[in-house]
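Is this the right way to post structure tokens for a design question? Let me know if I should format differently. Anyway, here goes:
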């Protein structure tokens, strides 16, 4: 049978450390709760007293603005942080956002608060644009991973054109690889047959990109 003895001084030191750790844990819990605020799109907290920035989707005038907090946007996006620090000194900011829908804007802001998002293809495209524009790299990578995993003969062409338009190299390379690996299925798809008839230029672009990436060409 072994017994462990501990001196009074050591016991007091351990107690101090224990209290310090408990305090640190409480502080971390507080910070987590702060970051995971209820979504700013919840109408119960869309109150000017609590929010200090408004985002307006220019291409979707039928929907209302999205209210948020500068501290949350700036803490997750270096672009927002620089914007608030250097260019927008007024207390109430209005930011007009182009080329995305209200739904995507709302989902983007909600992600910055909760780190949660429900994706489908169109939403992933919209959120990728936001994530790249505002340098939210973890969301950008998540959208890319989702779009790559969802590649099929129906959406491969739209994913290809999106990748080219937004200079998304990883997504483009993965899409080209999928097209080549599934070329027989791809060239028989309704989307490809229609594309050859309506926009042969994109077909030529796909072939050219396959050549330049040393991939097998389509039959």
């Amino acid at each position: 049978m072994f017994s462990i003895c501990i001196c009074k001084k050591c016991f007091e030191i351990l107690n101090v450390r224990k209290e310090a750790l408990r305090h640190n844990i409480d502080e971390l819990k507080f910070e987590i709760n702060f970051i995971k605020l209820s979504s700013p799109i919840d109408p119960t907290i869309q109150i000017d007293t609590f929010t200090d920035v408004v985002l307006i989707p220019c291409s979707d005038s039928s929907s209302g603005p999205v209210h948020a907090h500068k501290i949350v946007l700036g803490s997750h996006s270096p672009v927002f942080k620089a914007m608030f620090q250097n260019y927008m000194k007024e207390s109430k900011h209005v930011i007009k956002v182009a080329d995305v829908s209200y739904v995507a804007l709302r989902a983007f802001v909600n992600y910055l608060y909760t780190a949660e998002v429900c994706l489908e293809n169109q939403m992933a495209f919209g959120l990728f644009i936001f994530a790249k524009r505002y340098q939210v790299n973890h969301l950008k990578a998540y959208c890319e991973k989702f779009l790559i995993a969802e590649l099929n003969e129906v959406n491969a062409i739209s994913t290809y054109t999106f990748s080219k338009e937004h200079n998304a190299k990883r997504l483009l390379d993965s899409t080209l690889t999928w097209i080549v690996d599934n070329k027989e299925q791809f060239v028989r798809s309704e989307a490809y047959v229609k594309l050859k008839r309506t926009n042969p230029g994109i077909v030529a672009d796909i072939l050219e990109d396959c050549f330049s990436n040393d991939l097998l060409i389509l039959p």
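Format looks fine. Someone answered above. Worth noting: Strands lie at 53-57, 66-68, 93-97. DSSP finds eleven helices and three strands in the chain.
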